[in-house]
Design brief:
single chain; alpha/beta; Rossmann fold; Transcription Regulator spoIIAA; 18 strands; about 35% helix; about 20% strand; globular
Amino acid sequence: MSGLEIITFGCRLNAYESEVIRARAREAGLVDAVIVNTCAVTAEAERQARQAIRKARRRRPEAPIIVTGCSAQIDPRPYAQMAEVDQVLGNAEKLESRFYDIGTAERIAVGETEALGESASHLLSGVGGDTFAGRARAFVEVQQGCDHRCTFCVIPMGRGPSRSTPLGRVAQEVRELVEHGVKEVVLSGVDLTDYGKDLPGRPTLGQLVRRLLAAVPELKRLRLSSLDPAEIDEELLRLIAEEPRLMPHVHLSLQAGNDLTLKRMRRRHGRAQAIALTERLDRLRPGLALGADLIAGFPTETEAMFADTLSLVEACGLAFLHVFPYSPRAGTAAARMPQLPSAERRARAARLRREGEAALGRFLARQLGRTAEVLVETPGRGRSEHYASVRLERAAAPGSIVRAALVAHDGAELLARAA
């Protein structure tokens, strides 16, 4: 095997940046290498990255292996000490072509440029819509970093402070993507609802969405990545209610359903606020699909406190869950709190996932008999407006949007036939 191979772990932001990495590496003339874009959210993500590096060396003994991403940014030395690794790059360096000249670059390049500092937009511009040509969906990074310090989260150490990409650059990139056939764009960020606070006039995320849809009327579908329930602005809520091109799917960074746990996490919302928000969203756009990030086994969490998180799934009408067993991260406040046994953390995460599977089944059952606009991602499969996975009875061309009747489900995906 030969060629440029990108192995990506973690969030949608990393998925987007992996495409930028591919473009920057090619600009540098790097055509035969393995680049591992790591995640630092959990110890498991880091373990999987190390495992992937070792497997890559066995598969491709002659190819250079470059490690980058949040885990490499926060603590590059363990990767540099791996015999399989040729180079380690920080989160800013991975977006600059000059660092992919293996012959001249430093073995460890972390923090040589700003750590994705005051603005990353200059590093992310100029990729071109052709990078995503042939894709049904593409991610666009509009915000980087985080100014908040949740006690469990190490990401601010790897991503730096919050900063936003100006609307003009966002619109230009989205326009190029549409010109290259992309039908759906997902706006992504580390703390997406913090968008605009560092820009002139302090535009909100809602203002960005409204102006973007007006600037690129050819865009068929727009979707948002995870939103902080404490920061959703009124204009965004109006757009969720009124704008058909903004998909009826909202994913929330809830993390827990118990007020004391949320306080110890240093979150800025409580259980009642989360429930009130989801009820309001459902009134604004009936049938809206709701998802959430949830952590199981946070330090000091009792069985009763965990039960509050379990019950939040039904109380908020959640259908799509991202469940994480709590993972202590060095340098965070939560890592210094009394820890639950790892077996208990894993067991609670499994219970929460089962609750999520049941909730997804109920949501899919409610879709039966309806007609969906399915964005085809691979022959015979795609996503509905609600982000539900859909299997089509007849294959359709990837990138097309197919109107289809939803006739059955298996608990995980819907079966549809052309309407």
